[in-house]
Amino acid sequence: MTKILSLNGVNIYQKNFQQILVRGDGKDQFNQTMNREISVIPPSKNLEIKVNDQFLIAKNSFDQWTLIYFFEQDYKEILKFISKLNSDDRILASDYSYGQVYFEISGKNKDEFLNKLTQFDLRKKRFSDLSMAQTLIARIDCYIYSFNDKYIVTCNRSYEDYFKERLIDLANLH
Amino acid sequence: MILIDCPYCGEREQSEFTNGGEAHVIRPKNPEALSDKEWGQYVFYRSNPKGIFYERWNHSHGCRKWFNAVRDTSTDTILKIYKLTDNRPDISEFKSSLKSPSGEPAVGSGNFAVKK
Amino acid sequence: MPALRNKNCNYVSNKEINITFDGKSYSAYDGDTIASALLRNNIRLIGRSFKYHRPRGIYTCGIEEPNALVQILNEHNEPNTRATIKKVYEGININSQNRWPSLSFDVGSINNFLSPIFSAGFYYKTFMGPKGFWKKIYEPLIRRTAGLGKPPKNFRSKSIHQNHNVDILIVGGGLSGLIAARKLINTDNEVLIVEQDSFLGGILKNSNKVKKIDGKSVFDWVKETEKLILESKNIKILKNTLVTTYNFTNHLIALEDKFAGKDIDTNKAELILHKIRTTQTILANGHIERFISFRNNDLPGVMLASSFEKYIERYGVVPDEKPVIFTNNSSTISLVKSLINLNCKPGAYIDSRKKKDIEDETKDYLSKNNIPFYPESEVEGCEGNKKVEKVYIRSSNKEISSINASMLCSSGGFNPDIHLFTQSKGLVKWDDKIISFKPDTAFQNTITLGSVSGNYEFKNLCNEINKKLSFLKVNDLNLDIELNIRNDFSISELWETKINKTSKWAKSFIDLHNDVTTKDLKQAINEGYDRIEHLKRYTTNSMGTDQGKISSINSLGIVSKILKKKISEVGTTTYRPPYAPLSFAAIAGRSTYEYYDPERKTPIHNWHTKNNAVFEDVGQWKRPWYYKKYETETMHQAVQRESKQTRDTAGILDGSTLGKIEIKGNDALEFMNLMYTNAFTKMKPMTSRYALMLGEDGMIMDDGIICKINDKHFIATTTSGGAPKVFSHMEEFLQTEWPHFQVYLNSITEQFTTFNISGPKTREIMSKVFNKIDFSNQSFPFMTFKIFDYKNTQVRIMRASFTGELGYEIYISPKHALELWELIFKHGKDFNLVSYGTETMHLLRAEKGYVVIGQETDGTVTPIDINFNWMIGKKKKDFIGKRSLTRSDTARKDRKQLVGIVPLDKSQFIEEGQHVVECENLPSKIKTPVEYLGHVSSSYHSPNLNHCISMAMIKNGNKLMGKKLFVSTSKGTKNIPVEVVNPVFIDPENKRLVS
Q1: Which residue of C has its CA nearest to B57?
Q2: Domain extent at residue A35
């Protein structure tokens, strides 16, 4: 965990999470396969997320889920899990652990701060707790997850420096 | 930037989407059986009406899903959004909802901000 | 002696500050605008006009100002700043504009006496010829004498954007906006109020028209309202913020001046561009007073009446103690009252309305205070040396008399400020009662309240607002509004008064900003420009940076009279955004310089930097272009060194930017057969294949290597730039044409870091790095791949090559990538391994005759054109683009085809992009076009062959092998003789590749 910035009502940390991207049909067999591995039935409602202490699992669209581990697992175990999922021809699981970067954004002014980088409507009535979205932040494709009064934002690793610089730049201009 | 109501993600700004041109253009089942002219019609020709237009959109910076929309090209008003699996809505559904901002003629543009 | 101060004004502080104007120091108050500060110091001459260089002063007290534009020297030399809205601060350094050598003596004012040639359309008429004169004479001349301020210098933007999503946006924090806001306090609606001034209150602070609200002074009522709003949970206020743009789907743009009245801190965001998305827009942006055209209505000292009143009430400065007042409506009496309250007395009150139409209260008040009163009269004109000295009055008996005065306040009525409403595509309608356009039918969720809606009656305001906001189900609000003027508004039509005295100098202006006279309008109509949109462009009327805010309706009035039409028939010109000038710096926001485009870096980026890589932009990616071995090494030297070393021993390239797509599902094989030209059915598992992707038009779209894990699982690579396009192209066909296919795609571009290692020593290096893997030709042949556990991760290695040498591609997780890269170098040192960049990559592939998509191809090239017939699965029934390959045009035999070319004189160098022709010399003067065969698509000096090698796309190229042709140069008319050859320059038998 690395602190990126902290100013009045906005705190941003970079996190060492791991991630798996799963594609599937969301039907019984899929749910059971997932449940067997993580003991949680993947959310069935679009853009919904389920969270526990260990991970979150989110439905990104009608046939895609992301599973994010909050604590670094043995990477071999993750790869093993992926290959188990992939043994079903009707599922495609890809390792997204280290190709992505993860930021945790909290504080009471987080919406106003993020709205300097995105037009996305962060108001609770439009983007409720325990939901996710894929949108543009700082002109790059991001996933944003909302839970426990904070956001997790992930983007491609190649943008890491650019994204962090934009955040710090805005904080400096504040 | 208009708002587009993605059938999977809800209302988002246009910058998240890519327009995919005319909808309901189906790829021919047996291309080899077509003449150059028929094939060219499929590859190159699209309609470009003023008014009601059936078109495709891709939520390219969101869920990456494709869907169809009916848009009034003269006002950028989206009249209906429907999934690829839904039936093409009949044009008669929209005739009455067409609203011209400036009482424009059917062809060409005009700036008539004054109510006659 | 400074101008009289209104001590009752609450909006300007007592703190004295120093400002500089045209090099001289003046004293002002904190809270002043430049204009109020200058008026305080009795300065009335502010600048020179755009075309005629006539002396100009301060005409208004707000955004509508056409004249008083100045340059702020200490703010990046910011030009064309409106003196009437820009707030001053200690040390601000202001210059007047468009004058030389000085403001009071300006050489350019000769234009005024040459004015007969500067009439309507003069740019179109005058500068038609002779040829060449425009560039050499006219343009420099015009640039020096016409125009506005000088451009800013060394400016780097620190402006930012702020997005808002709200339920209700209220534009304007004046009386109507505040009433609406009070009704919305503590409701479920999220509300944003945008106010252009630094104080709320609008007309309440700008005039003395309203005496009391609910028994409280207007100042106290506004203060109370603001407090209630700030305490509420649902309403926010943005001050010093101007709404400039009203887009579709209720998206509005507003510009906030973060340093209004303060010295700019250049390390902070100076301007904030607010992008507001709202469900409901309430326009309460008021009205703008219009002027009247009379002789010399541009002289410094002529000012709009309500602006004069605003200087007294809002800025506490009385610009003149005895101004002459000229009006055609009932509102102006409040100015008289403001002056009388301060023991000042207008020099005369001239009202063009019929005596019986003028309110008794007005007549009584004027006579009680002994103010000379001229009913049914008008100002014919005014005269003076760079300022108003004499005012000529045409009385009801048509006789003209003159009085001495130093300021003249005029009011031609009020226009509802419909700019934003029409931007929103609302329709407006002419209202004979107020003699102006007012909003009629909204196109979006837009409501207009107060004077912008054409309601000038204060006592009717609450009723209007209650009615229009009733759909929000909020409580009614009824206020007791006490007035200093009559509640009902009365006006008589008057656009222009007849000029009696004519002289070369006398002019009656319709557009002060662009120096358009009423005569120009008439002349343009005589010349046939009788449509308002044509007339506007021909005369440049209302095309200035003020967009004719005080005058455009007046021009419609004058034109309608000439054309004998109703104003509603003449129509308006189109109101386009922005409402007021908007700095490009604000529009750009932070998307400039270092943030112009997002940057992507590979996991090896820092290593490249440490090893002196020079980077090249490939899309958003930063890729090493070449590495400098020593400080003075040139790019050519570096590329020659890297290329030679790779073919002699081994080289490695960071190929992480390659697009990678994972494809899986029961129908994956069929899907791949349709997406690519190649046939994948007979391909063995764990092998790979170079593949081409076409558009439906048969043109090459992308290439890459396809790894087949099994019939249901593939991994495809794409070009670095083509990755997003290919991925969405695949998704498109899966979702739209073949939804019955059970196939999923994931982009794994960033999930695998990729190294391309090649050269004769590669096998030895790889065997040392991965000592458990057998890299022999038998167990690891060309175009196969292996996946195996490595340390804590997995590695995929593919035998492939883009250089023509023995080569491997290594795929590893980004977390473990740098460590592996360094390990490869540790072992590679003994084998003289070199890191190379994209330029060497291009050179090496050109030596081998490999094409680059986007360099040899440009969207008009088929596989057949580049001799890739072998890549087409001819037995396949169908694939994307197949049918197009046999269209008459694509099957043509004389299309441009890929060939190699080499100079006959091996010391010569062929430039990329040059034309291939048949003639030895180009004619020095081209009379007939030279026949062009094609162009050079790639060209390099090959260190391995020691001469120039090029690839070219030329007509019928395949039939021209061995032929002598010529290539043009950038240096002269003598072409380079070349020979057409096979484009594979090195190892045409592929011995090295499969060794």
Answers
A1: C732
A2: 18-95
